[in-house]
## 1
Amino acid sequence: MKHNNSSNMPANSLPAPCLVDNGIVINKSDMLRLLRGLRQVRYIHKQDTEITNTGEGCVMEAFADTAQATLVANRSLYLNVHSFDYLEMVTTGAETSFVLVQDSRCLCLTPITPTAEEMSVHPLDAAALEAIVTEALSASWDASLDDDRHFL
């Protein structure tokens, strides 16, 4: 039986990889997708087998630029996938960590799940915040139009 290949994939090519919770990611765009989903993280920086830094911070940006550095300072992380050879997903228990590896250096990022208390303090996500700002701007424009009508 002959199958109709509806994709543009040549008959002799392999399917794209599928990694679930564990595996090595070498494609820079795949690395970016994983890193852009991170917010608050615990990080461990190792050189050879020695831990040089640890801490917690917020992933401010994940990007791909051969001319810029990965920066970790003041609880802020700016992650450049070109600073690393690959990303390894490692699952231990219920959490998956992302280990960025370059030669004998690695930066291990473990997402921090906000507690229920933290979520109740900051329950707004980006879409909700955008809706509030849009509504406020719209109300401001309506009010200014109403004020302008009194002068006509």
## 2
Amino acid sequence: MSTTDDWVEKLKQTRDEIKLQLHLGSKEAEDEWDELVGEWDKFAAKAQLEKSSEEVADAARDLGLKLKSAFDRMKKT
């Protein structure tokens, strides 16, 4: 194999590795999103119950912090 052929093969391998990493990253982001949606559903269900406003505020604050952190992580990737 010539040097050019080696170089082309390395580029193809790098391309394939990056494609795989992007796919895995997408799956990780999707999994995180699904988890956040689950957290939202839990919050929404709890808010419907007869809870004190303090308990609802605590749950909203916790959810807000989780969402902000997750969105920041997703934005960076």
## 3
Amino acid sequence: MKATNNRSSEDYLEAILILSNEVEFVHRIDIARKLGVSQPAVQKAIKILIDGGYITCDGMHIYLTGKGREYAGAVYNRHCVIRSFLTLHGVDEKTADADACELEHVVSPATFDMMKAYVDSNK
């Protein structure tokens, strides 16, 4: 699923998804802290994601739309599968997580399907 080819947008959506599972309301400052970016950077990303129909904002709180939740879930799933694939091959957790953050944006569907099949068969 590639609703956007923008890695930054995928990172923001994934962060919003993770935060929304941890706290009742997601705020811009939460996203800035999670991603280690400035609040103006978050504000710019929020506008792009609203315009794309991925999130809504009531002024203070940020919410994923159905489209946004589906897309963020797909990105997060790719991350988790790739991280598991790497750890199953002996990569330490910290490195696997960092590498998964990079690979989740560029892995081809065929490679991802292979990784997922491997992870699923080695649970």
